[in-house]
């Protein structure tokens, strides 16, 4: 069941879906959480497609460095596949990786400043994190498999790109960590799932998908999920 509510209490854990450089929507979110004393987690894909890359990155970096100045208890950001494509493009400025990034909405007009100011901290973003009984990740995991082992085995990039079989079977926590009960992710716009859900979050078994295609005009939305209260709040143009 999807419940929408704009309330946040101190100590609540709030996840935010794929921003995709939609600065005006991200600004609405920041004004909403400011002073709430919540813990905030961005699920990756902060950049590309929306053209507001620098503003989104600059505010994200400020929040990572000093969440208390925004009245937040803590602030985290995860790596998404678009951050990975950006880093790969910087290593291959005249090759296929750069072309792939641009084809997927990379902001080549701002790439120089993005590289100078933000490359190093983006490179250090974690692939996933857990708080209490909830796993936060960009795309998903192989059902029943510990993502930490995947990283150790040199296959961590799958966590940035996976769709199937994760979307069908979910995390299957009982196979590796029964303490966990829920995974919150983005990466696959909910209107691309089967059956498609137009710009609303999806709750299916143990997984919650909050990528509601923020960059898509005019109807795309940016979705926040208050994990503590099991409620959603959306931001639109």
Count of distinct structural domains: 1
CATH fold assignment: Purple Acid Phosphatase, chain A, domain 2
Helical stretch tally: 8
Mean pLDDT: 97
Helical content, roughly?
Answer: 25-40%
Radius of gyration: 17 Å
- Low-pLDDT runs of 5+ residues are none
- Portion of residues in beta strands equals 15-25%
Topology, number of strands:
10
Helix-strand string: EHEHEHHHEEHHHEEEEE
CATH superfamily: Metallo-dependent phosphatases
Structure classification:
alpha/beta
Query: Which CATH architecture would you pick?
Result: 4-Layer Sandwich
> How are strands sequenced across the largest beta sheet?
3-2-1-9-10
Strand count, sense and closure of the main sheet? Answer: 5 strands, mixed
In CATH, what is the class? Alpha Beta
Give a structural overview.
By secondary structure, the chain is of the alpha/beta class. It has a single domain, classed as Metallo-dependent phosphatases (Purple Acid Phosphatase, chain A, domain 2, 4-Layer Sandwich). It has 8 helices and 10 strands. A 5-stranded mixed beta sheet has the order 3-2-1-9-10. Strands 4-5-6-8-7 form a 5-stranded mixed beta sheet, with no helix packed on it. Helix 2 links the parallel strand 2 (39-42) and strand 3 (74-77). Helix 2 (53-65) runs parallel beside helix 5 (111-123), helix 3 runs antiparallel to helix 4 (96-103) and helix 3 (81-91) packs across helix 5. The chain is globular and about 45 Å long. The mean pLDDT is 97.
